[in-house]
UniProtKB/TrEMBL annotation:
Its EC number is 5.4.2.2. The keyword Glycosyltransferase does not apply. Pfam families: PGM_PMM_I, PGM_PMM_II, PGM_PMM_III. Keywords: Carbohydrate metabolism, Glucose metabolism, Isomerase, Magnesium, Metal-binding, Phosphoprotein. Coiled coil: none annotated. Belongs to the phosphohexose mutase family. This is phosphoglucomutase (alpha-D-glucose-1,6-bisphosphate-dependent). It comes from the Eukaryota. The keyword Nucleotide-binding does not apply. Its cofactor is Mg(2+). SUPFAM superfamilies: Phosphoglucomutase, C-terminal domain (SSF55957), Phosphoglucomutase, first 3 domains (SSF53738). Residues 22-165, 194-299, 304-405 form the Alpha-D-phosphohexomutase alpha/beta/alpha domain. It comes from Rhodamnia argentea.
Amino acid sequence: MAAAPSAAVPTLEKADFLKLQNGSDIRGVAVAGVEGEPVNLTEPVTEAIAAAFAAWLKDKKKEEASRHLSISIGHDSRISAQTLQDAVSRGISSVGVDVIQYGLASTPAMFNSTLTEDDVFLCPVDGSIMITASHLPYNRNGFKFFTSAGGLGKADIKDILELAADIFKNSSVEAYARNKASASVKRVDYMTVYTSNLVKAVRRAAGNIEKPLEGFHIVVDAGNGAGGFFAAKVLEPLGAITSGSQFLEPDGLFPNHIPNPEDKVAMKAITQAVLDNEADLGIIFDTDVDRSAAVDSAGREFNRNRLIALMSAIVLEEHPGTTIVTDSVTSDGLSTFIEKKLGGKHRRFKRGYKNVIDEAIRLNSTGEESHLAIETSGHGALKENHWLDDGAYLMVKVLNKLASARASGAGGGSRVLTDLVEGLEEAAVAVELRLKINQSHSDLKGGSFRDYGEAVLKHLENSIDLDPKLRKAPVNYEGVRVSGFGGWFLLRLSLHDPVLPLNIEAPTHNDAVKLGLAVVAVVKEFAALDTSALDKFVQVS
Ligand SMILES: O=P(O)(O)OC[C@H]1O[C@H](O)[C@H](O)[C@@H](O)[C@@H]1O
């Protein structure tokens, strides 16, 4: 609220607000009841953050000061969604900016609302807030912010949180009431606009056929997140049968599985649904639908490297030779596939969806053409779709492929997709072990976990230089990536957590252990590092 601190609201410092930053998102605990996780995304904190975003936006748009600005708000299926939506609305209104509530929505739809030109739906909005904590547990929640230039970056989020701390401290009840009176709150069914655009995109690609998916049986698993719309509002109008789709109803306790295409249990659930229903294709989304994965009719998963291979094949058919930007944990097999089989260029960049998208945009600005930025996590953005990070749009590209293959007489089912990734070499063993840094350990000597992690990486790098069986990757943008024993490993700092994730891929468990041992030798010297996961892995049974 311009939240007037009261006796009931504890004093919060700038540092408390800054702790809510998670890269380019804001994340916190919004629901009480989990031991050791006190609520820090309270209503007053939320109001202050929303007010800060609105004030930041007003500042950016000063030259348009004569008109009322508007911000759209959407949320996923979390149980704290309603409370936070109301608090966000109050915060925005307190600065005199209009609020347009969309209700249950997807993250990409929110960004889209800053680009859509449609007066009836009060679009385009000047800014947008998605209330979500992606796949995190039910007690968390958070915010993602957009303008027509895309998602806000780390630096902007930091500015907004600093401003929120000031607003929280200094606001007066009078100013709040005055500003609020001049702002309006409206509700709009924007998801109808967004989904009809997805439907139109598939129809257009199929040569303006009304039902290009007629006869295809496609099951959707929304994991009780916000993605249930995809079955009734996208697939069915296109003619697909969607019976057997599951967990489409929003339920913020996520009773069936975590909505996360990287999660093994989630992937098993959609795979089983495809097989049980003898469907042509399965589609799964994360909670807020900016990530997705698919499963073919034989139960083969298109997630992680395989999803990237599939999307690369589709995009490289349309744009021969283009550069595919991916995150850092992608496999060697994927690089070979993109470069040798598909004739594209692979830029293995850093982890983080914003990092890969920004890198693709940067490459284009330097004259290197790139049409796809995608992470193993299932985040993916295409140039043709305004670099919008959209799991649903990735699936639209997959549907286009199915429809066009059938139109050109190819056999039915998802065979065409399976064929597209033929030749992708996959390691028999692929693991991710996450080594925690104990931040209160004396070995940190008062320094930050980042400095400590960097010291581990430096030491590892030096030790690799001394080992003739190991070879450092000649081009690498994050952490230490090393080849050897027919495989590779990457040790890097987590984007947000005091953790060093270690990815290992190798042809056999034995080879993977040999790679793991090269890391063990180094990390053992760092007492604040919890190496138990790695120790367990290298103990060959
Ligand atoms: O660095 P990590 O801890 O593995 O996390 C990396 C992940 O962080 C967030 O979830 C981002 O949304 C992802 O884009 C990113 O891949």
